[in-house]
Design brief:
heterodimer; A: alpha/beta; Rossmann fold; 6 helices; 5 strands; B: Immunoglobulin-like; Immunoglobulin-like; 3 domains; 5-stranded mixed sheet; 4-stranded mixed sheet; 19 strands; globular
């Protein structure tokens, strides 16, 4: 059983919301890696190899969809299979379909979500057995 | 998406109970229509379903803003995040409260938009305490925030959602001018044709009088919905409502707890949804008791009466 502390990359450009997410995840005993834009998220993803990415979609420099595409197309299979939960205020069918096509583990609409539900989901995804590669 | 979310892993027993919209929807719908007409002619400022947090300079809605409803001693009652249209709202019990809004690169309370209106938005809030006397009143004033620095998110969002509050204001002003012009013209024509006044002028005058009467006497739309049920809940249990998209059923588009008296406040964008009615409680997995197909209109609120039996 893997007892290493799991890493979560929190990608959110709004500092206040990012801090709330970090404060909510810290008590769950994860290592939190914050990123304020999409470009930084990709750099940290390759450098830190997080177990899960909590991803906003409207992001400076590189939007969340492009970050997702880079993750899924990465040659290293472990990185390409990184678990991703989207937390965005975009909620059109087009956006959801696009995220689903990029195999996100869940999609939460910020305004309609109790953040406790997001934290529960993070916990559930990280405690699920890894997919066969 | 895999079904691993506890939120999505409700014990689904939709056949345990039957949910339907109350049949007594005739009057609320008529009321909604009449209030819409009066609001269209700027004859009545109808109560808002949602408050909007907006940029006091550009008048564009802000998101994500963390809006907190606080007791007078600073304890938190409820927190919500505004949607892409800047909307938020609370349903609160009697007491003394204040609201706090927080967003990166923005300051609250506003120093630019003072007073109760800024010409575009009404019922402005600036951080003052307020008292609620009725049980579960809707709390949704409009909240201006002042830009403190350039905000990338706000600029980028305008490619997704761009509001034109000044155009809306101009349109309403023009409609109002035409309304009052018609009223005065009818009066002048009645005066000029007296005593052989054509019938049509009487009818027009009667319609105007009726509209003006309604503008002062018609009650407001109901801002909240209500659940009527005989389901007995254990201590600590509560009912909840959740909207799932009709296509993407695993994604939650709105969730709210039903208050003790059955009232709820549930928002979402215009569209067709599957409404789940369930119960939850401390350390208990949520259980879905019933489901119902519903549609939400352009006002972005689901405020019907749901009967569960």
């Amino acid at each position: 059983m893997d007892n290493a502390i799991k890493k979560i990359l929190v990608v959110e450009d709004d500092a206040d919301l990012r801090n709330i997410l970090i404060d909510g995840l810290k008590p769950l005993n994860y290592q939190i890696i914050p990123a304020e834009d999409g470009q930084r998220a990709v750099e940290l993803l390759l450098d830190q190899k997080p177990d899960l990415v909590l991803l906003d979609l409207l992001l400076p420099k590189l939007d969340g969809f492009k970050v997702l595409e880079r993750i899924r197309q990465y040659p290293d299979k472990a990185i390409a299979a990184t678990k991703v939960i989207v937390l965005s205020n975009l909620w059109s069918d087009k956006d959801i379909l696009r995220a689903q096509a990029l195999k996100v583990d869940d999609y939460f609409v910020k305004a309609n979500t109790n953040l406790e539900d997001v934290f529960k989901k993070v916990k559930a995804v990280l405690s699920a057995p890894p997919a066969l590669k | 998406m895999p079904e691993t979310n506890p939120q999505n892993q409700n014990n689904y027993q939709p056949n345990q109970y039957h949910a339907r919209r109350s049949f007594s929807v005739f009057w609320p719908n008529i009321l909604k229509l009449l209030n819409f007409i009066l609001n269209f002619f700027s004859l009545k400022q109808t109560k808002q379903f949602w408050g909007i947090v907006y940029d006091s300079v550009s008048k564009q809605p802000l998101d994500p803003v963390i809006v907190k409803l606080l007791y007078i001693d600073g304890r938190e009652v409820e927190t919500c995040v505004t949607d892409i249209a800047g909307r938020y709202g609370f349903l609160a019990r009697p007491g003394k409260f204040k609201i706090h809004a927080r967003k990166t690169n923005y300051l609250f309370p506003s120093k630019y938009a003072l007073g109760d209106t800024d010409g575009i938005y009404e019922n402005l809030y600036h951080g003052e305490f307020f008292k609620l006397t009725e049980d579960y009143e809707v709390v949704a004033p409009n909240i201006p925030m002042d830009p403190a620095a350039a905000d990338w998110n706000q600029k980028a969002k305008q490619t997704v959602v761009k509001k034109y509050p000044y155009l809306k204001y101009l349109f309403k002003a023009l409609v109002s001018i035409f309304f009052w012009f018609g009223f005065i013209l009818d009066g002048v024509l009645i005066f000029k044709t007296f005593p052989r006044i054509p019938e049509v002028l009487y009818i027009v005058a009667a319609v105007y009088i009726l509209i003006l009467f309604l503008s002062t006497s018609l009650p407001d739309n109901r801002l909240w919905g209500r659940v009527k049920t005989k389901i007995i809940l254990a201590p600590g249990e509560y009912l909840f409502l959740e909207l799932r998209d009709a296509k993407f059923r695993e994604i939650s588009f709105g969730k709210t707890a039903v208050k003790e008296d059955g009232k709820f406040l549930l928002r979402s964008n215009k569209g067709r949804y599957l409404l789940l009615v369930g119960k939850a409680g401390m350390n208990k997995n949520p259980t879905v008791l019933a489901s119902l197909k519903v549609a939400i209109g352009s006002q972005g609120v689901f405020n019907s009466t749901i009967v569960i039996n």
